[in-house]
Amino acid sequence: MLAQEIIRVKRDGHTLARCHIDHFVAGLVDGSWSEGQAAALAMAMFLKGMSRDETVVLTQAMTHSGLVMDWSTARLDGPILDKHSTGGVGDKVSLMLAPLVAACGGVVPMISGRGLGHTGGTLDKLGSIAGYNCTPDVAALHHALHTAGCAIIGQTAELAPADRRLYAIRDVTATVESVPLITASILSKKLAAGLQGLVMDVKVGNGAFADSLEMAATLAESLVQVAHGAGLPTRAWLTDMNQVLGSSCGNALEVLEAVTFLKGENGDARLREVTLRLSAELLVMGGLAQDDAEALQKVEHALSSGRGLEQFSRMVFALGGPVDFVDQPQRYLPTAPVQLTVQAKRSGFVSGMATRDVGLAVVELGGGRRKATDMVDPRVGFTQFAQVGQAVQAGDVLAVVHAADAAAAERARQALLGLVQVSDQVPVWSPVLVRRVIA
Q: Strand, helix or coil at 235?
């Protein structure tokens, strides 16, 4: 079978057969498909689209291009569950969700990624904890899951290697924004993790990859339907990303906010609502609760009782972090040497923010990457971020900049003044949970 003939099939708008897709995926792994051939088929897929069945087959082929986790001999006491977000600004939900679900009886081997573009990465956040090992061996991973019920780690080279090569090709050939290819990329890694249930957090708004409700809904429906077609029960929520989620953005700063949340001291209602709802979805899918009401009650108890905090503490210690991290997190998290307050220039109400640009401002401070090889400064970012609808007086705090030096802090302060809008009118309230998508 010739690669160019497979490319021709999709170029001409026809449906790829399973043998075509299997040949393509095998060629990605063994190198028998050149960069040019893989890019050509990716572009054909992007321009001509893919049917739901084609996307299921591609997802399954990429899943089985490498190691597929088998937990049957690990003697784990609970259903294998996970959550994935399409990426946002200030999105630290995974840090709280994993231990909360574990506290309710689930087992969460969460394979996460590093920051991409303007969005923060869960691995970069946890990497700010002294000693935390994001790439444990199998024995350490099993130990963490047995002792904490959760382990947030990075993707190994063995999991879905075809996706890793295809993503790199898509990244440089303007074929990233393809719903079928995005779907196959996300789900192949989740299926390879051996999950029994998955909840997707599909962000929508000016700080999200999907800036329109239509695009977000299309992606969510594709993810849910393809996952079910591939044998993985999945639900999704569209959640609002028209403002920073929570009060902080930046790696170490978000870890600190997550610990504060798990201690029951964080008052951000939107962050709480997203975290509890997504956690509850997993309990229902995992058979740990009969319905949504029971699931929410269990998650709320795990939070209020401190059991979620305990599971987080156990996970950090099992993966190399300090045993007393949750007791004194500021001792172990790096701190930026310069902190500068951003004050409102006028009185009124916070009416909106350019959320994507806020994320890019974190990157400018050094908290993200311009290219894959860049080092990340875990100390920098923003705290005390004002929320849409909040009333402010002239001189009130809109945010606090955490920076490596005074010049960077001042640049960030000036930038934020143009990114957060204050007006006379109270803005129309927008729910953080926009829409639920189920099969």
A: strand
